[in-house]
C-alpha cells in the first residue's frame, strides 16, 4: 500500500518555487475503440492528413501527436473488454474470480508523486456510471475504471459536475472535522490489530483516505507556493453546475471538460483523468440521431453512425485542447504546458488490442515534439508502459520501470 | 460417472455427481488410486494431445500443462483442469486440425478430472473461504441508515456506483473500495444524517426535518394526530352521535357493558359515553341537569333538536370563546352564576304592525328550594339620539304624544289658515300666531312639516351614532366610528385621541366636505351675549378650520360672524353682543374643515350664551354637555330645560329644499295644491275641515291619509321633533290603568317582604312572562333594554334565567334556556348553580381540546403553542393515555425550546407594544419575571438532560456498530465529546460531531470481523453472526431483537438461529434480499435506472414504466422469499405483481390504480415466472430491437450456469446490423451464425433467445416484429431438442434442466450469502442445499437454513491464514 503524501511531503514542505508553469497531465478515455477505416493520421505539421474520426482536431494539427502500434501485453490475456481496460494505464495483469487486482495507474502514480503540490492531487472524472456486475468472472469494475490508486483500488469516479466542482473549490471541512477524523483514525488503528492479515490492507486503505482528507483540512487556505509562477486564474470563472446529473450526454461531457480545464487553469490540480464512457458502454446518442443501439453494440460495425459517435468523442478532446490553447501562460499556452492523452481499450469494436489508438495533444512544456505521427509498428519496443515512462519523465516523475516496461519509448 | 459430463461443464457435472451419488456417504478418498491413474493414464494422454502447444516453453494461451509432473502439482492448481473439462465437452480442444482423442480417451480423462475434483471438494469442504473485509455497499448503507434512523434519506445518492465481484454481487470486499473522495462523501453523508438528530428529554431521535421549526411541526402533527383519535379536527364532540347513542341505550339494558359495547360499535369514546349515560340517567339535584334530563326523556331517536338546542344554549352562556394567543383561555369558562344580566331586544314593530309586543320571561328556577323572584330593573326603550323612555313612563309618554297630536289636529283648520297666510306673506309670524291663537312652537313645526315658510329648524342631520374611545372609554362621542364628529372629555386630564382633547371640554371633527355644528335652541326669549371659542387641536397636521356663528329663526338662517383659524391656532375674541332671541330660535356654531382637503381637523369648541337682562342665566356648551355628552341628542341644559343643545352635521354648500312630507293624494296634499293654485279661502277652509275630520275620526285607515297620519304621529318624525318624550310625569297627571300599552303603574316598585326598589323597576315571581305592548310610534328605531337579577330579598336563595323575547313563549322555563343563570352571590342558589354549571361543563364542553396546538390568526402572540385539553383528559382519556399526552407535550416543549423562545418573543412584543403606549410598560413588566424564571429553569433542565444524550449516543454507537462497545471505546467517544466541549462547542454541536464520527468509523462502514489469531478457522461471534445474517437476508443492519438474541449468546444455538433466520425471511426487509440477491443475479437490479432504449421507438418506456417493471421483479421475489414459496416458481409461477401501469403494458385487464397487488392466472396473458418479466426481456434487448443472442446468453450463462468459451480475440466483421435487407432479427442472427468463428457459441445460445421472440424490446407481447413480419418462436437446440415459444422453453428448462437451474440458484445464493466467489470447497454445501430443496417442496427457506448453519457461514479463517494459490 502506497502512502502517497509521505514520500513527497518533505520535498513539498520546503515550498519549491518554480519560475515556469508546470506540466499538466490529462488522460481521456473512450471505450470500445473507433471506426476501423477512419482512425488514421499521416504526414507532418500543417500537412497532417487526418482520418474522419480525428477531423475535429484539424485546427490544432501542430499540437497533435498520433502514435500507432502501441499495445499492452496483459490486455491480450484474460477477458475481452474488461481485461483491456482495467489495466490500460498500468499494464498490470488482472485478477479474476472474486479478486480485484490491477496495478496503480500511470495518472495516479504521477498524482502520488506531484499531486501534493496542488490542492487536489488529481481529479478523476467520468460521464457514465460504473457497471456493477461481473462479466465472465471479471468484475465490471475493470471495464469502468482506467484510474487505479492502488492495485486493489479503482479510483472512484466523480460523475456529478457539481460535486467535481466542489472537490476543486469547496472547502467544506472545518476544524471540527479534524477531531472527527482523529477519532475514526484511532478506531481504525485499534481495529487493524484485530482483523485478519488479508483485511489489514482494507483498513490501510481506510486510514490512508482519512489521512489524506485530514491533510486537506490542514492545508486548506494555505498557499505554500512561495514565489515564482502563479496560475492565470485564482478563482473559478464558471458558476457551480446544477446539483442534478445533466440531462444529456453532450451537456454532461462538456461540463466535465470545462471542469477539467478549470482545474488546470487555477492550478487546483495538475493531473486529471476523464473517462468519457465505459468500455462495454451502454451510452446512447439521441442528440446525434443515433438511438437504435447503445455504444457497445454500435462499435461492432464500421457504419457512418459509428463514425458520428467517434467524432463526438473526439470533439470533446478538441474542445478541451482548444480551450487550453486559448489560455496564455507566459510565452506558451496552457495546452503547450500540457499532455492530453486520448486512448481507448481497443483499436476497433472488434476487440483488437494489439494496436491501441493513441493521441497526445499538447507539448509538455516544450518537452514533447508534436505535429507528427509516431509509428511504432514493427518496432521491438511498442509497449504502452514505455510511453508512460516517457510521459512521466516529462512530468518530472522518473521511474526505473513501470508496468511491463523498463525502457522509454523511442521517439517520444 | 454421469452421462451429463458430455454436455455440461465440469463444476456442474461435479455437483450432479455429488448430489446423486451420495458422495458424502463414501468413506475416505482414494488419493492413491487417483495418483496411480494420473501417472499411468492421464499423463500420457495429456502428453499425446496437449503438451505440443501447452508446454512450459510455448505455454500457448497462457497455459503450461507440462509443469504438472505429478498429482502434488495438480492439486496445487486445479483451475486448468476445471477449464479442460469445458474445452473437452465443447469440443474446443484439441483444435480441429490436431489429432483428436477417442471417445474412450475423452471419457477417461473427464472421469479422472471428476474424481480429482470430487476428492478436492470433499477435502476442502466447509472452508470458510476468503472473505475480504467488506464495507457497506451503497444499498446496505442506505438501508442501515434507514433502520437506524427510521428515515428514508438516501444519503448515497451521489456516491459512485459500487463494483461487483465474486458471483456478481456488490457485497464482496474485493470490489468495495475506499478512497479519499469516497471518505469525503461518507463524511458528508454522516453529516446529513446527523442533521436530522434531535435531542429529546428521553434521549435521541431522528426527525425528518433538519431544523427546530420542522421538528416542532412534526411534534405538533403528532399531537394533532393524538387528539384526532378522540375528536374531529375542530376538537368538538360529535354531539349528535353521542346523544343518539344514549337514546339507543335507553331502549336497551343500559348496563356498563352495554354502553361499552355500543361505544365500540359506533366508534365512540366509551369513557365519555358512560359519563353521558350516567348524567342523563342518574338522579340529580342539579337544576341544570334536571332540566336536561327532562328534555332528554322527551327526545326520540332521530329527533335531537330540542336536546341539542338546550345543550348548545347552555354552552353559549357557560363559555366564552376567545382568540388564542393572548392571556385568556380559548374556551373561557364564564362564571355563569352571575347576579345580573343586561338584556335587550330591538323594539321595531314587525312589518305592517302598528305596535310592538315584548315579552319579559323569567324561568329556570324550579330547583325545589322555594320561590324564585326576578327583578326587572329599569325596563326602558333606548335608541336613536333621544333619552330612554322608561317602561313605567310609557303610558304617560304615549298619552302626551296623543295629546300633542290632538292639539294640532283638533286645531288643524286654524293652523292651516295660519300657514296659508304665511305662504301668502299676510303678516309676520308672531302676528299670525296671535291672530289664530296658535302655539308658536307647534306652528313652527307645522310649517316645517308642510314645507311652508322655510325649514323647521337649522338641523340638517342629527348625529345619531354613539361611540366611545377604545383605550380611553371615558371619551364619548357622537358620530361614525371612523370620524367621531363630536367628542367630550369629562376628566381632569388632557387626552390624546389623536389630537388633543382638553379636560371638561368638547371638540368637533369635521371632515372633507362635511361641517359639524352645535345648535343652541333657546328655551327662553330675551337679550343675549354670545361667546365662542374655536381651537385647532391637531397641531401636527391639517390646514386649520373655518367657523361660523348662525342664527335661525322662522325658517331662515343668517350668519352672525365667521372666521378661519390656522393649524394649531385658536380664536382670540369671539364675543357678539346684543342678540335679541325669541324662544325656539337656534344659535349654531358651525365648524367646517377649512381647506376641505384634510381630515386632521379635531377642533376644540365652546359656545356660551348669556342673558344680558332679566335672570341673567347662562348656557355653556362644555359646561352643559361635556360630562354626559351621550345622554341624548338633543341634549338638556343644566337648568332643567329639555332638548337645548343639538349636535348635527351637513354637507357644505348643499341647499336642501324644504322637505315636503305630505304624501301625494292625501287630504293635505289636496289642500296644498289648492293653496298653490290660488283657490279661494272658502275652498281652502272646506278642505281644512275635511282634513281634521279624516285625521281625527279614524277614517283614514288606509291609503295616503293613513300614511299622512303615521307621518304626523311618528315619534321620530319631524312633527314631534323637539317634544321631550323622556320627560317624567307631570305632577298630578293621572295615570290610566286601563290603557293597553305598557304596564299598569302598580306593576312597578317593590313587593311585600321584598327589597326597596327603584320605582321604575318590577319584581316578579318566577316562572312568569310579562307581555308589554308598545305603540309603533315609540318603538320604531328603538331597543328595549332591561337588567334582570334575582330580587335581592325574595329571590336571595333562588336562581333563575331571564330573557327578553319578541315572540310569545309557550313556557317560561323553556324560553330562557339559553340565558345566563342568575343567582345572588352568597345565596344558596348561587352555590347550587355553580356546582350544577360545573357538572354541565364537564359533560358538555363545546370542544374537548384545542386541536390546533398552534395559536391561529394571531399576528402578535406570546404563545408558540397553546394547550387546552382538560375536558379531554377528564372525560375521555385513561390514565395511560393522559401520560402519553403529557409526554407529547413535554417533548414539544423540550424540542421546540419554547421557554427560551418565549423570552425572545416577549422582548419583541413588549418593545413593540409599549413604543407609543408608555402605560403598557407596567402591564408587560408583570410577565417579565415569570417568563425569565421559566426560561432559566428550562435552561437548567437542558443541562441536566445532557447525560441522557450521552447515554443515548453510546447506545446508538452500539447499534450502529452492531455490537456492544468496549469500555475503552466508550471512554474514547465520551473523551472526544468532552474535548469538543472544552474547545467551545455547544452540547448539540459536540454531540453531532461524535455522531458523525460514529457513522464514519470503520466499525460502522465495515462489517468488521475479528478472527482468532493463528491459521485455523474459528467460529464467528454471535454479533458477527447477527451481522452476517441480517446483511444476507435484509441487506441491512440487525434489528433490536436480533442484537439482543446475539447479546444473550443464544444466536449460536441451532434452534435459535433457525428461528431468527425464518423471522428475518418473513420480515418486510427481505425486500433487500429480493433486490440485492435475486434482481442482481438476474441483472435487473435498479432496473428503473436502465436508460438504454430508443426514445422515439419506445416512448412509453419512461421512468414510471421502468420503476413499475423494477417493482414487479422485486415484489415477485420478495413474496417468494417471505411466503416460503417453491423456487421452481421462479420459472413457472402463474402469478405476478402488477399495478395499472404495468398491467396495461402487459395487456392484462382489470387492474386499476397505482397500488400493487398479486394477480393470479397470468399465464394466459403470456406472463408468469422470470422469463416473462418485462425487466429481464428488456434488459436483454437492444436499444431498438430484441436480441435473441443476449436473451439466449442470459439463459445459458445466468440461469443454467454454463461456461461459454471466450469469444475470439478479434471478432471478425459480422454482417452489417444496420442494413437489414428486410431480414427479421432472427434471420439476421442466423446469418451471424454463418460465420464459423461464431457458430460454436451461437448455436448454443441463440435458440433460447428465439423462443422469446414473441416479446419486444421492452417486454410487450407481439405476433409481428417492428417491421410487421410474423415472429418465429420455434427453436432447435444443438442436441436436436425442439420447443416452441415461452411455454416450450419453460417446460424444457423445468423438465430437462431443472437441476442445473437449481444448482445455479444455490451457487449464487452461496456467493451472495458469503460475499465471495464460490469454490470447490462449497460444492458439498451446494449439494446439500439441492438435496434439501428436493426433499422439501423446493422451499426457498430450506436452502437458506442449510446455508446459514454451514461451516462457511458460521466460521471465518484464522487471522493469520495465508492464502494458498489454489
Key attributes of the depicted protein:
heterodimer; A: 412 residues; alpha/beta; 7-stranded mixed sheet; 15 strands; B: 1366 residues; alpha+beta; 8-stranded antiparallel sheet; 6-stranded antiparallel sheet; 48 helices; 35 strands; elongated
Helix content of chain B: 40-55%
Oligomer: heterodimer
Strand order of the largest sheet of chain A: 5-10-1-13-14-4-15
What is the tally of helical segments of chain B?
A: 48
Largest interface: A-B, 79 and 89 residues
Q: What is the CA-atom radius of gyration of chain A, in angstroms? A: 21 Å
| N-to-C CA distance of chain B | 25 Å
What is the H/E string of chain A? HEEEEHHEEEHEEHHHHEHHEEEEEH
Number of strands of chain B: 35
Low-confidence stretches of chain A: 1-17
What is the molecular shape of chain B?
elongated
Measured on Cα atoms, how large is the radius of gyration of chain B? Answer: 52 Å
Strand percent estimate of chain B:
5-15%
Task: Report the biggest beta sheet of chain B as strand number plus sense, adding barrel if it closes.
Answer: 8 strands, antiparallel
Could you tell me the strand content of chain A as a percent range? Answer: 5-15%
User: From the helix content, strand content and strand pairing of chain B, which structural class follows?
Assistant: alpha+beta
Measured between the Cα atoms of the first and last residue of chain A, the distance is 31 Å
- Looking at the structure, what is the overall shape of chain A? globular
Helix coverage percent of residues of chain A? 25-40%
**Mean pLDDT, all residues of chain B:** 86
For the residues shown, what is the average pLDDT of chain A? 87
Report on this model:
The complex is a heterodimer of chains A (412) and B (1366). Mean pLDDT of chain A is 87; it is low at 1-17. Chain A is globular, with a radius of gyration of 21 Å. Chain A has eleven helices and 15 strands. Helices cover 32% and strands 13% of the residues of chain A. Chain A is an alpha/beta fold. In chain A, the strands form five sheets. Chain A has a seven-stranded mixed sheet, sandwiched between helices. Chain A starts with a helix and ends in an 18-residue tail after the last helix. The relative contact order of chain A is 0.22. Chain B has 1366 residues and is of the alpha+beta class. Chain B is built from 48 helices and 35 strands. In chain B, the strands form ten sheets. In chain B, strands 10, 11, 12, 15, 17, 20, 22 and 23 form an eight-stranded antiparallel sheet that branches. In chain B, strands 9-24-16-21-18-19 form a six-stranded antiparallel sheet, with no helix packed on it. In chain B, β18 (545-553) and β19 (556-565) form a beta hairpin. Chain B is elongated, with a radius of gyration of 52 Å. The two termini of chain B are 25 Å apart. Mean pLDDT of chain B is 86; it is low at 1-27 and 1215-1219. Classes of the chains: A alpha/beta (412), B alpha+beta (1366). At the A-B interface, β9, α6 and α7 of A face α7, α30, α31 and α32 of B.
Amino acid at each position: 500500500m502506497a502512502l502517497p503524501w509521505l514520500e513527497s511531503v518533505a520535498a513539498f514542505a520546503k515550498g519549491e518555487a518554480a519560475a515556469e508553469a508546470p506540466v499538466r497531465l490529462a488522460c481521456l478515455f473512450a471505450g470500445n475503440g473507433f471506426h476501423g477505416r477512419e482512425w488514421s493520421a499521416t504526414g507532418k505539421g500543417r500537412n497532417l492528413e487526418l482520418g474522419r474520426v480525428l477531423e475535429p482536431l484539424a485546427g490544432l494539427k501542430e499540437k497533435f501527436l498520433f502514435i500507432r502500434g502501441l499495445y499492452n501485453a496483459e490486455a491480450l490475456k484474460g477477458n475481452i473488454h474488461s481485461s483491456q481496460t482495467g489495466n490500460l494505464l498500468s499494464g498490470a495483469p488482472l485478477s479474476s474470480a472474486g479478486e480485484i487486482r490491477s496495478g496503480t495507474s500511470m495518472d495516479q502514480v504521477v498524482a502520488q508523486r506531484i499531486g501534493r503540490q496542488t490542492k487536489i492531487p488529481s481529479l478523476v472524472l467520468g460521464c457514465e456510471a460504473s457497471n456493477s456486475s461481473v462479466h465472465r468472472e471479471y468484475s465490471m469494475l475493470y471495464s469502468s475504471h482506467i484510474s487505479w490508486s492502488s492495485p486493489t483500488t479503482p479510483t472512484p469516479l466523480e460523475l456529478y459536475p457539481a460535486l467535481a466542482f466542489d472537490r476543486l473549490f469547496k472547502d467544506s471541512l472545518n476544524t471540527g472535522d479534524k477531531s472527527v477524523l482523529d477519532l475514526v483514525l484511532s478506531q481504525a488503528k485499534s481495529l487493524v490489530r484485530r482483523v485478519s492479515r488479508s483485511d489489514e490492507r482494507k483498513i490501510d486503505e481506510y486510514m490512508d483516505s482519512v489521512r489524506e482528507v485530514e491533510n486537506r483540512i490542514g492545508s486548506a487556505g494555505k498557499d505554500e507556493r512561495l514565489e515564482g509562477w502563479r496560475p492565470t486564474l485564482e478563482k473559478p470563472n464558471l458558476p457551480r453546475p446544477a446539483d442534478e446529473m445533466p440531462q444529456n450526454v453532450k451537456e454532461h461531457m462538456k461540463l466535465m471538460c470545462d471542469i477539467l480545464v478549470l482545474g488546470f487553469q487555477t492550478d487546483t490540480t495538475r493531473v486529471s483523468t476523464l473517462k468519457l464512457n465505459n468500455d462495454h458502454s451502454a451510452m446512447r446518442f439521441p442528440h446525434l440521431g443515433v438511438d437504435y443501439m447503445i455504444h457497445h453494440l454500435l462499435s461492432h460495425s464500421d457504419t457512418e453512425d459509428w463514425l458520428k459517435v467517434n467524432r463526438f468523442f473526439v470533439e470533446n478532446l478538441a474542445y478541451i485542447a482548444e480551450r487550453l490553447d486559448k489560455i496564455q501562460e507566459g510565452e506558451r499556452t496552457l495546452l503547450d504546458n500540457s499532455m492530453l492523452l486520448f486512448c481507448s481499450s481497443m483499436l476497433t469494436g472488434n476487440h483488437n488490442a494489439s494496436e491501441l489508438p493513441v493521441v497526445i495533444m499538447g507539448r509538455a512544456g516544450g518537452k514533447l515534439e508534436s505535429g507528427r505521427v509516431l509509428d511504432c509498428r514493427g518496432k521491438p519496443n511498442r509497449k504502452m508502459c514505455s510511453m508512460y515512462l516517457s510521459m512521466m519523465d516529462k512530468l518530472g516523475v522518473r521511474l526505473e520501470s513501470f508496468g511491463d516496461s523498463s525502457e522509454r519509448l523511442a521517439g517520444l | 460417472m454421469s452421462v451429463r459430463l458430455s454436455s455440461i461443464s465440469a463444476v456442474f457435472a461435479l455437483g450432479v455427481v455429488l448430489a446423486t451419488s451420495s458422495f458424502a456417504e463414501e468413506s475416505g478418498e482414494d488419493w492413491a488410486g487417483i495418483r496411480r491413474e494420473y501417472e499411468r493414464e492421464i499423463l500420457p494422454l495429456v502428453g499425446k494431445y496437449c503438451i505440443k502447444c501447452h508446454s512450459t516453453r510455448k505455454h500457448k494461451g497462457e497455459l503450461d500443462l507440462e509443469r504438472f509432473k505429478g498429482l502434488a502439482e495438480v492439486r496445487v492448481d486445479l483451475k486448468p483442469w476445471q477449464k479442460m473439462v469445458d474445452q473437452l465437452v465443447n469440443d474446443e480442444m484439441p483444435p480441429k486440425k490436431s489429432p483428436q482423442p477417442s471417445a474412450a480417451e475423452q471419457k477417461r480423462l473427464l472421469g479422472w478430472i471428476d474424481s480429482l475434483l470430487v476428492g478436492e471438494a470433499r477435502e476442502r469442504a466447509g472452508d470458510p473461504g476468503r472473505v475480504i473485509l467488506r464495507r457497506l455497499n451503497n444499498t446496505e448503507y442506505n438501508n442501515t441508515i434507514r433502520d437506524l434512523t427510521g428515515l428514508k434519506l438516501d444519503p448515497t445518492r451521489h456516491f459512485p456506483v459500487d463494483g461487483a465481484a465474486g458471483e456478481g454481487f456488490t457485497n464482496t470486499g474485493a470490489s468495495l473500495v475506499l478512497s479519499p473522495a469516497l471518505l469525503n462523501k461518507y463524511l458528508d453523508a454522516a453529516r446529513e444524517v446527523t442533521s436530522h438528530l434531535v435531542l429529546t428529554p428521553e434521549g435521541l431521535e431522528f426527525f425528518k426535518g433538519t431544523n427546530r421549526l420542522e421538528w416542532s411541526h412534526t411534534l405538533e402533527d403528532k399531537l394533532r394526530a393524538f387528539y384526532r383519535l378522540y375528536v374531529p379536527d375542530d376538537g368538538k364532540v360529535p354531539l349528535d352521535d353521542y346523544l343518539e347513542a344514549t337514546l339507543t341505550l335507553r331502549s336497551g339494558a343500559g348496563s356498563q357493558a352495554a354502553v361499552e359495547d355500543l361505544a365500540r360499535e359506533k366508534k365512540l369514546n366509551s369513557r365519555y359515553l358512560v359519563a353521558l349515560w350516567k348524567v342523563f340517567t342518574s338522579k340529580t339535584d342539579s337544576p341544570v341537569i334536571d332540566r336536561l334530563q327532562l328534555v332528554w326523556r322527551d327526545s326520540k331517536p332521530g329527533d335531537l333538536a330540542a336536546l341539542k338546542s338546550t345543550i348548545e344554549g347552555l354552552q353559549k352562556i357557560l363559555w366564552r370563546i376567545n382568540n388564542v394567543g393572548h392571556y385568556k383561555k380559548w374556551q373561557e369558562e364564564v362564571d355563569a352564576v352571575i347576579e345580573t344580566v343586561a338584556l335587550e331586544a330591538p323594539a321595531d314593530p314587525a312589518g305592517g304592525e302598528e305596535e310592538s309586543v315584548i315579552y319579559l320571561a323569567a324561568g329556570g328556577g324550579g330547583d325545589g328550594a322555594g320561590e324564585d323572584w326576578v327583578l326587572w330593573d329599569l325596563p326602558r326603550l333606548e335608541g336613536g339620539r333621544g333619552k330612554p323612555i322608561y317602561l313605567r313612563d310609557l303610558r304617560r309618554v304615549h298619552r302626551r304624544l296623543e295629546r300633542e297630536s290632538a292639539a294640532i289636529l283638533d286645531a288643524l283648520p286654524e293652523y292651516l289658515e295660519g300657514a296659508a297666510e304665511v305662504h301668502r306673506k299676510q303678516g309676520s309670524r308672531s302676528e299670525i300666531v296671535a291672530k289664530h291663537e296658535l302655539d308658536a312652537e307647534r306652528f313652527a313645526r307645522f310649517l316645517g312639516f308642510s314645507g311652508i315658510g322655510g325649514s323647521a329648524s337649522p338641523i340638517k342631520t342629527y348625529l345619531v351614532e354613539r361611540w366611545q374611545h377604545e383605550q380611553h372609554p371615558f371619551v364619548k362621542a357622537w358620530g361614525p366610528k371612523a370620524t367621531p364628529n363630536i367628542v367630550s372629555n369629562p376628566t381632569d386630564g388632557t387626552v390624546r385621541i389623536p389630537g388633543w382633547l382638553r379636560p371638561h371640554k368638547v371638540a368637533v371633527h369635521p371632515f372633507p366636505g362635511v361641517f359639524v355644528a352645535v345648535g343652541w335652541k333657546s328655551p327662553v326669549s330675551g337679550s343675549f351675549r354670545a361667546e365662542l371659542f374655536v381651537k385647532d387641536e391637531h397641531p401636527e397636521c391639517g390646514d386649520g378650520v373655518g367657523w361660523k356663528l348662525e342664527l335661525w329663526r322662522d325658517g331662515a338662517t343668517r350668519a352672525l360672524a365667521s372666521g378661519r383659524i390656522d393649524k394649531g391656532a385658536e380664536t382670540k375674541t369671539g364675543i357678539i353682543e346684543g342678540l335679541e332671541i325669541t324662544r325656539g330660535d337656534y344659535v349654531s356654531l358651525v365648524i367646517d374643515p377649512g381647506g376641505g382637503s384634510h381630515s386632521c381637523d379635531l377642533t376644540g369648541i365652546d359656545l356660551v350664551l348669556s342673558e344680558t337682562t332679566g335672570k341673567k342665566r347662562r348656557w355653556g356648551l362644555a359646561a352643559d354637555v361635556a360630562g354626559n355628552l351621550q345622554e341624548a341628542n338633543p341634549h338638556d341644559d343644566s337648568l332643567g330645560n329639555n332638548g337645548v343643545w343639538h349636535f348635527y352635521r351637513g354637507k357644505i354648500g348643499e341647499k336642501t329644499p324644504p322637505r315636503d312630507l305630505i304624501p301625494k293624494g292625501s287630504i293635505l296634499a289636496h289642500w296644498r295644491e289648492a293653496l298653490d293654485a290660488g283657490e279661494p279661502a272658502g275652498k281652502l277652509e272646506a278642505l281644512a275641515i275635511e282634513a281634521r275630520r279624516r285625521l281625527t275620526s279614524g277614517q283614514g285607515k288606509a291609503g295616503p291619509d293613513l300614511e299622512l297620519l303615521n307621518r304626523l304621529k311618528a315619534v321620530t318624525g319631524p312633527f314631534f321633533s323637539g317634544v321631550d318624550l323622556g320627560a317624567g310625569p307631570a305632577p298630578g297627571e293621572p295615570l290610566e290603568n286601563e290603557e293597553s300599552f305598557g304596564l299598569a303603574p302598580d306593576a312597578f316598585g317593590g313587593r311585600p317582604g321584598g327589597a326597596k326598589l327603584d320605582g321604575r323597576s318590577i319584581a316578579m315571581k318566577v316562572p312568569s312572562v310579562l307581555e308589554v305592548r308598545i305603540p309603533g310610534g315609540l318603538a320604531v328605531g328603538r331597543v328595549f333594554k332591561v337588567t334582570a337579577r334575582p330580587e335581592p330579598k325574595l329571590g336571595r336563595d333562588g336562581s333563575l334565567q331571564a330573557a327578553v323575547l319578541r315572540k310569545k313563549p309557550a313556557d317560561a322555563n323553556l324560553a330562557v334556556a339559553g340565558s345566563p343563570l342568575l343567582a345572588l352571590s352568597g345565596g344558596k342558589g348561587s352555590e347550587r348553580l355553580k356546582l350544577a354549571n360545573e357538572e354541565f361543563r364537564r359533560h358538555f364542553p363545546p370542544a374537548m381540546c384545542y386541536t390546533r396546538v398552534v395559536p391561529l390568526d394571531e399576528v402578535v402572540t406570546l404563545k408558540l403553542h397553546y394547550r387546552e385539553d382538560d375536558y379531554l383528559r377528564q372525560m375521555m382519556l385513561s390514565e395511560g393515555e393522559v401520560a402519553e399526552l403529557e409526554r407529547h407535550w413535554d417533548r414539544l416543549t423540550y424540542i421546540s425550546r419554547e421557554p427560551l423562545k418565549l423570552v425572545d418573543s416577549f422582548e419583541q412584543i413588549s418593545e413593540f407594544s409599549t413604543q407609543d403606549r408608555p402605560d403598557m410598560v407596567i402591564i408587560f413588566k408583570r410577565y417579565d419575571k415569570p417568563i425569565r424564571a421559566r426560561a432559566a429553569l428550562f435552561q437548567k433542565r437542558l443541562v441536566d438532560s445532557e447525560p441522557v444524550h450521552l447515554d443515548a449516543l453510546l447506545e446508538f454507537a452500539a447499534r450502529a456498530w452492531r455490537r456492544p462497545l468496549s469500555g475503552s471505546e466508550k471512554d474514547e467517544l465520551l473523551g472526544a465529546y468532552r474535548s469538543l466541549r472544552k474547545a467551545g462547542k455547544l452540547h448539540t454541536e459536540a454531540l453531532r460531531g461524535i455522531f458523525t464520527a460514529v457513522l464514519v468509523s470503520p466499525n460502522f462502514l465495515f462489517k468488521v470481523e475479528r478472527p482468532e489469531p493463528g491459521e485455523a478457522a474459528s467460529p464467528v461471534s454471535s454479533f458477527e453472526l447477527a451481522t452476517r445474517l441480517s446483511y444476507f437476508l435484509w441487506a441491512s443492519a440487525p434489528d433490536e431483537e436480533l442484537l439482543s438474541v446475539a447479546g444473550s449468546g443464544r444466536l449460536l444455538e441451532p434452534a435459535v438461529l433457525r428461528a431468527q433466520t425464518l423471522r428475518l425471511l418473513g420480515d418486510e426487509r427481505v425486500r433487500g434480499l429480493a433486490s440485492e440477491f435475486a434482481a442482481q443475479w438476474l441483472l435487473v437490479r435498479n432496473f428503473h435506472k436502465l436508460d438504454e432504449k430508443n426514445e422515439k421507438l419506445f416512448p412509453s418506456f419512461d421512468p414510471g414504466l421502468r420503476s413499475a417493471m423494477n417493482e414487479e421483479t422485486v415484489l415477485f421475489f420478495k413474496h417468494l422469499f417471505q411466503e416460503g414459496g417453491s423456487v421452481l416458481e421462479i420459472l413457472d409461477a402463474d402469478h405476478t405483481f402488477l399495478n395499472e401501469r404495468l398491467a396495461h403494458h402487459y395487456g392484462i385487464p382489470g387492474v386499476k390504480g397505482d397500488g400493487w397487488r398479486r394477480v393470479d392466472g397470468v399465464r394466459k396473458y403470456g406472463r408468469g415466472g422470470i422469463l416473462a418479466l418485462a425487466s429481464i426481456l428488456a434488459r436483454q434487448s437492444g436499444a431498438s430491437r430484441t436480441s435473441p443472442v443476449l436473451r439466449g446468453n442470459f439463459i445459458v450463462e445466468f440461469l443454467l450456469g454454463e461456461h461459454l468459451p471466450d469469444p475470439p480475440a478479434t471478432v471478425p466483421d459480422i454482417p452489417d446490423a444496420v442494413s437489414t435487407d428486410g431480414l427479421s432479427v432472427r434471420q439476421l442472427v442466423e446469418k451471424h451464425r454463418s460465420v464459423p468463428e461464431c457458430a460454436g457459441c451461437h448455436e448454443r445460445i441463440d435458440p433460447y433467445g428465439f423462443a422469446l421472440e414473441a416479446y419486444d424490446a421492452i417486454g410487450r407481447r407481439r405476433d409481428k416484429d417492428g417491421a410487421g413480419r410474423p415472429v418465429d418462436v420455434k427453436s432447435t437446440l444443438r442436441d436436436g431438442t425442439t420447443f416452441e415459444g415461452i411455454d416450450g422453453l419453460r417446460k424444457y428448462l423445468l423438465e430437462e434442466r431443472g437441476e442445473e437451474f437449481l444448482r445455479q440458484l444455490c451457487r449464487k445464493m452461496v456467493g451472495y450469502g458469503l460475499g465471495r466467489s464460490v469454490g470447490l470447497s462449497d460444492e458439498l454445501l451446494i449439494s446439500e442445499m439441492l438435496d434439501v430443496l428436493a426433499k422439501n417442496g423446493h422451499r426457498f427457506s430450506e436452502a437458506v437454513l442449510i446455508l446459514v448453519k454451514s461451516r462457511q457461514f458460521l466460521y471465518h479463517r484464522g487471522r493469520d491464514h495465508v492464502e494458498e494459490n489454489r
